Amino acid sequence: MFVCWLEPWLQKSDLSTTLNHSLGLMARLACGLTMGVAIAFIPNSAIAMQIKVTPTNPKLGDTLRVIAQYDDLSINAAPQVSAGKQTYQTFLTGSNQFRAFVPTTPLDKPGTLTIRATGGGETAEVTVKLADRKFPTQSIRISGSGSDGTDREFDRVDAFKKLVTPEKFWQGGFRRPNQGAITSGYGIRRYYNGVFAKDYYHRGIDYAGAYGSPVVAPAPGRVSLVGRVSEGFKLHGNTIGIDHGQGVTTIYLHLSRINVKEGDFVRSGQVIGAVGATGGVTGPHLHWGLYVNGLSVDPSPWREVGFE
Q1: 3-class DSSP state for residue 245?
Q2: Which domain holds residue 119?
């Protein structure tokens, strides 16, 4: 077998079942002269798969969009995508084309990341350079007894973040959930009451909206979590979680009012609640977090660029 690879696309082509020496030489010359194409010459028929990752220059906290596609249109087996030790489900987005989202966080190590797609008896992989990113450090003090949280709220929130439903409810970029100024960005490392929170990063964006100002759904989805202080949500405060489908969820914390119930389907821009100061807070604000396959990613690209 003679192989010529050029990342980020990897593919295999069975040009002939009986390549003689002359054709093999010509193939080698063609491989050297053909830019932008990755070709493998195999003596038996084989399933070809291509894989592509965007953004091409990711940094810590980015969501990676992975597209895997078979050259053989008769193949319809959904491949699996893996990065490191984690495996992610793919979803059909076009003719024999499948998409997975790979989350990265501020706690990941920058450097080379190998992403592999396996399906239909075939495997393809690419490597991307995950760039470092500097996150600021913040020192805050929390008053009251809400800083510890309860097992009940953590269990319910953790279960919500793990949802991977097959439907895709959103289209294009996400809306801004509140019009207040941003006071704390994604990824900030923190000292709480003078103690550094190891392995912690700010899992979302804080909006300093006025008390009682509307909180809207940034994209369509199903309300899959409603938690209240009266139900033990001492840290998160009054909380709403929306499932946007295919492993994408958003969460809204510290609300003064909740306008929806679990099971409701909400549209983009619909008012779901109001800014408050419930739970462990320093003052009225909205905490908005976006999770992909259970991990908190930077919400900004989902608003500015959007993912399909």
Answers
A1: strand
A2: 2-130
Instruction: Please give the Cα distance from 258 to 224 (Å, whole number).
Output: 13
Whichever domain contains 298, its CATH number is 2.70.70.10
CB-CB contact of 173 with 218 (8 Å): no
Q: What are the b/e assignments for 11-31, b being 16+ CB within 10 Å?
A: bbeeeeeebeeeeeeebeeeb
pLDDT in tens, 124-141: 999 999 999 999 998 877
Which of 130, 155, 171 terminates a domain? The answer is 130
Cα-Cα end-to-end distance for the chain:
37
Tell me which of 130, 161, 185 is where a domain ends.
130
Q: pTM for the complete prediction?
A: 0.81
- Nearest to 221, CA basis, from 240, 238, 245, 239: 245
Cα Rg, the chain, nearest whole Å: 23
Contacts with 255 (C-beta within 8 Å, 6 or more apart), sequence order: 215, 237, 238, 239, 240, 273, 274, 275, 276, 278, 286
pLDDT digits over 99-112, tens only? 999 999 999 999 99
Residue 37: CB atoms within 10 Å: 12
CATH of the domain at 108: 2.60.40.1930
Q: What is the DSSP letter of 193?
A: T
Query: Cβ distance 273 to 280 under 8 Å?
Result: no
Asked whether the CA dihedral 10, 166, 187, 302 is positive or negative, the reply is positive
